[in-house]
Design a protein that fits this description.
6 strands, single chain, 6-stranded antiparallel β-sheet, 99 residues, alpha+beta, globular
Length: 99
C-alpha cells in the first residue's frame, strides 16, 4: 500500500508534518529518524512505520511492518495518516492518491 501526496514543495511539507507533531497539535504520531510511527494505539501499531520518499513534486509514503503484523494493521495506520493530512494539512497539498 502506498500514499502519494502531491505538493509543490515536498521538503517543506515534511517539515510541516514534523512541526504539527513536535508542536503537540498532533499527539498520536512521532518521528523515528525520517520515519513516522503511530503512537495512539498503546503499542499496538508501533511496529509499523511509514517511510516517506521525496520526489520533485510529491511525497511517496510506504508502510513497513514487522512480519508479526498483518495487513489490517498496515491499512489502519495508513488510514490514520490520511486522517492527519486531511485534518491538519489540507491546505498544503494539491492531491492525494492511495493505492
Amino acid at each position: 500500500m502506498k500514499i502519494v501526496i502531491y505538493t509543490e514543495k515536498p521538503e517543506e511539507f515534511i517539515e510541516k508534518i514534523r512541526e504539527e507533531i513536535t508542536g503537540e497539535r498532533v499527539k498520536t504520531w512521532d518521528f523515528t529518524g525520517d520515519n513516522l510511527v503511530h503512537t495512539g494505539g498503546k503499542g499496538q501499531w508501533e511496529d509499523i512505520f511509514l517511510s516517506p520518499g521525496i520526489r520533485k513534486d510529491r511525497i511517496s509514503v510506504s508502510a513497513v511492518r514487522s512480519p508479526q503484523q498483518d495487513r489490517g494493521g498496515e491499512s489502519y495506520v495508513m488510514g490514520r495518516f490520511v486522517e492527519l493530512l486531511l485534518t491538519h494539512l489540507y491546505r498544503d497539498f494539491d492531491k492525494i492518491e492511495i493505492y
